[in-house]
C-alpha cells in the first residue's frame, strides 16, 4: 500500500509547452487534441479581446481564442503562428506564438502553492514546474476563457435557417415594391426579377467550351454537383463578345424552363426596389429581336427618367431550339447519391458584402436595395461617430451608418467600390456603407452552421456561419435587427425627426 501511494505521488504528468510574448506556459497534454498551424481566420466584428474569430478545421467551424488577448497582452501581426485545438464538448482553438515540446514532470515537482507561483497580471495559473533553467507556468485555460467570454444562456438564433426574421417579414409587408437585380452588359443596365435569380457567383477563370456552339454559349462549368451552361448576355443581346475579360464579370444563375443556366454579365450593378408605376411595357414593335432571343419585358424609368433599366424575362430569353440544345448539354442524370441528398430543406439567399478581408452576409429579404454611396451626405450634430449622416433617397430620409466605424475598423483608402446597403427591420430603415457587395449567395438551410459558442453581447449579431470550404471562404451571417445596439437604436429613434428637417 505504501509503495502504491508513493507511485501515485511521484507519477509523471505530461505537458505541452508553448510561448506567448516570450513567456513559457504549459497545458496538460490530455487537454490538447492537436496542434496545427494557425489557419485563415474570419474576424468577428467587435469581438471581445480574446476572440480572434472563427476558422475552418477540416470542414468544421471552430472559434479561435488568442492567448495573448486572454492574458491582456497586445496582439501583434507576427504573433499567433500556431493553434492548440483544445479537447471538449465545444472545441476551441487557442492561438499561441510558438510551440515548444512535450515535457514530462513528476507530480511532486509541480508547484501548486499560489504564493510561490508568481502569477503576473492577467494570468490564471494552476501550477508551475522547472524546464531546464526556465519555469513553465500551467495556465488555467478554462478560467481564462470563462472570464473573457460571458456564456449567456440565450436561445441561438435559427432565423437564418427558418426563412428570415420577423423584422424582415414585417418589412416586406410594408414595402411591396418589385425588387430587381441589375447588371451591366455592353455599357447598358439590364435587370432580372430577384425571384428569378438563384445565385450570383464570380465568373470562372476557365471553362470547358462546347464544340460547334454558338457565340452566346460560352461553355460549361461544374456547379453544385452538376454542370452549368454559361451563356453570354452580350451574345444574347447582340452586342458581340468583349475583347478581353475585365475580371469583374459575374454569373447570374437562373432557371429557364427545366434548365438551369448561368448568364455572364460584364459586372453587377445593384439590387433595388422598383416602384410599379415606373415600370412600362416595351412597345410591341421593339418587343422581339430577330429569332425572338433576349426579349425585353419592360423598361424601368428611375431617377426622374435619367436611368433606364431593361427588364429581361427568363421565360422568353431563348429560342426553343436553343433551349433544346442546352437541355441536352446539361441533362447529365443525377447520381443516386445526389437524388438522395436533394430534399435537404429550405434554401436561403444572402447578400454578401466585404469589410476589409472579411465577408458578411445579410438575409436577402432584409435588403431593400444595393446602391452607390451618395456623394452628398448631410451630417447631423451630436450624433454617434458611426452615423455618417442622412440622405434623401427618392424622397425618403435615410440614416446612413458607416459599418467600418461601427465595427471600429480603419477608414478605407480607396472608396470607389463602396456600396450602400439599404436594410429594413421592423423599427428602422437605414443605409449601411460597406466596402463592396460581392454576390448573392444561395445555400441550403442545413449548410448554415451555428455561430461559435464563445460569445457575449458584442457578437450577438452573428447568427450563423456559411463555410465555403472548397473556395477557402467563411461568410459570417449577421442578424439585421442586431446591427445596432439597443442604445444606438434609441439614438436613431431620437434624431429621426431632426433628420427630416435637415434634408
Q: Could you tell me how far the N terminus lies from the C terminus, measured between alpha carbons in angstroms?
A: 88 Å
Q: How many separate structural domains?
A: 3
Low-confidence stretches: 1-10, 151-175, 209-213, 288-294, 328-342
Radius of gyration: 28 Å
Annotated CATH topology of the largest domain: OB fold (Dihydrolipoamide Acetyltransferase, E2P)
The number of E-state strands comes to 33
**Biggest sheet architecture:** 6 strands, mixed
For the largest beta sheet, what order do the strands appear in spatially? Answer: 3-7-8-6-5-4
Counting helices, strands and paired strands, the structural category is: mainly beta
State mean pLDDT (0 to 100 scale).
76
**The named CATH superfamily of the largest domain:** CheA-289, Domain 4
Q: Beta-sheet strand percentage?
A: 35-45%
The best one-word shape is elongated
CATH class membership of the largest domain:
Mainly Beta
Task: State the helix count.
Answer: 10
What is the helix content? 10-25%
- CATH architecture term of the largest domain: Beta Barrel
How would you describe this protein?
The protein has 503 residues and is mostly beta strands. The chain is 15% helix and 42% strand. It has ten helices and 33 strands. A six-stranded mixed sheet has the order 3-7-8-6-5-4. Strands 19-12-13-22-21-20 form a six-stranded mixed sheet, with no helix packed on it. A six-stranded mixed sheet has the order 30-23-24-33-32-31, with no helix packed on it. The longest helix is centred in the last third of the chain and has 17 residues, at 486-502. The relative contact order is 0.13.
Amino acid at each position: 500500500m505504501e509503495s502504491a501511494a508513493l507511485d501515485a505521488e511521484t507519477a509523471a504528468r505530461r505537458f505541452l509547452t508553448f510561448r506567448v510574448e516570450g513567456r513559457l506556459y504549459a497545458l496538460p497534454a490530455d487537454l490538447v487534441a492537436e496542434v496545427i498551424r494557425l489557419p485563415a481566420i474570419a474576424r468577428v466584428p467587435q469581438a471581445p479581446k480574446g476572440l480572434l474569430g472563427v476558422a475552418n478545421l477540416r470542414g468544421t467551424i471552430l472559434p479561435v481564442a488568442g492567448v495573448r488577448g486572454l492574458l491582456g497582452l497586445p496582439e501583434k501581426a507576427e504573433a499567433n503562428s500556431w493553434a492548440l485545438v483544445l479537447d471538449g464538448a465545444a472545441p476551441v482553438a487557442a492561438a499561441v506564438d510558438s510551440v515548444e515540446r512535450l515535457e514530462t514532470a513528476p507530480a511532486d515537482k509541480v508547484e501548486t502553492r499560489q504564493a510561490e507561483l508568481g502569477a503576473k497580471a492577467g494570468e490564471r495559473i494552476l501550477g508551475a514546474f522547472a524546464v531546464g533553467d526556465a519555469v513553465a507556468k500551467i495556465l488555467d485555460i478554462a478560467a481564462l476563457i470563462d472570464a473573457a467570454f460571458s456564456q449567456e444562456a440565450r436561445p441561438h438564433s435559427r432565423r437564418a435557417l427558418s426563412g428570415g426574421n420577423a423584422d424582415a417579414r414585417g418589412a416586406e409587408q410594408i414595402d411591396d415594391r418589385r425588387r430587381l437585380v441589375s447588371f451591366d452588359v455592353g455599357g447598358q443596365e439590364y435587370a432580372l426579377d430577384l425571384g428569378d435569380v438563384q445565385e450570383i457567383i464570380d465568373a470562372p477563370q476557365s471553362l470547358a467550351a462546347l464544340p460547334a456552339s454558338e457565340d452566346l454559349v460560352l461553355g460549361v462549368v461544374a456547379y453544385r454537383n452538376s454542370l452549368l451552361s454559361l451563356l453570354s448576355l452580350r451574345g444574347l443581346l447582340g452586342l458581340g463578345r468583349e475583347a478581353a475579360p475585365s475580371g469583374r464579370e459575374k454569373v447570374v444563375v437562373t432557371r429557364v424552363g427545366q434548365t438551369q443556366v448561368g448568364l455572364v454579365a460584364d459586372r453587377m450593378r445593384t439590387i433595388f426596389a422598383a416602384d410599379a408605376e415606373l415600370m412600362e411595357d416595351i412597345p410591341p414593335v421593339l418587343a422581339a429581336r430577330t429569332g425572338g432571343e433576349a426579349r425585353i419585358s419592360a423598361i424601368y424609368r428611375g431617377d426622374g427618367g435619367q436611368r433606364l433599366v431593361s427588364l429581361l424575362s427568363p421565360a422568353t430569353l431563348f429560342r426553343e431550339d436553343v433551349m433544346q440544345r442546352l437541355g441536352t448539354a446539361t441533362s447529365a442524370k443525377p447520381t443516386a447519391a445526389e437524388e438522395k441528398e436533394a430534399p435537404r430543406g429550405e434554401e436561403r439567399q444572402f447578400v454578401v458584402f466585404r469589410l476589409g478581408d472579411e465577408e458578411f452576409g445579410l438575409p436577402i429579404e432584409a435588403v431593400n436595395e444595393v446602391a452607390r454611396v451618395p456623394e452628398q451626405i448631410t451630417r447631423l450634430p451630436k450624433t454617434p461617430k458611426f452615423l455618417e449622416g442622412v440622405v434623401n433617397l427618392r424622397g425618403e430620409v435615410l440614416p446612413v451608418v458607416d459599418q467600418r466605424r461601427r465595427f471600429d475598423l480603419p477608414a478605407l483608402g480607396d472608396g470607389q467600390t463602396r456600396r450602400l446597403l439599404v436594410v429594413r427591420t421592423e423599427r428602422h430603415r437605414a443605409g449601411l456603407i460597406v466596402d463592396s457587395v460581392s454576390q448573392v449567395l444561395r445555400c441550403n438551410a442545413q449548410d448554415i452552421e451555428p455561430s461559435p459558442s464563445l460569445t457575449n453581447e458584442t457578437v450577438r449579431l452573428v447568427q450563423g456561419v456559411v463555410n465555403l470550404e472548397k473556395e477557402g471562404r467563411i461568410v459570417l451571417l449577421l442578424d439585421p435587427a442586431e446591427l445596432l445596439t439597443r442604445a444606438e437604436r434609441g439614438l436613431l429613434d431620437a434624431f429621426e425627426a431632426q433628420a427630416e428637417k435637415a434634408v
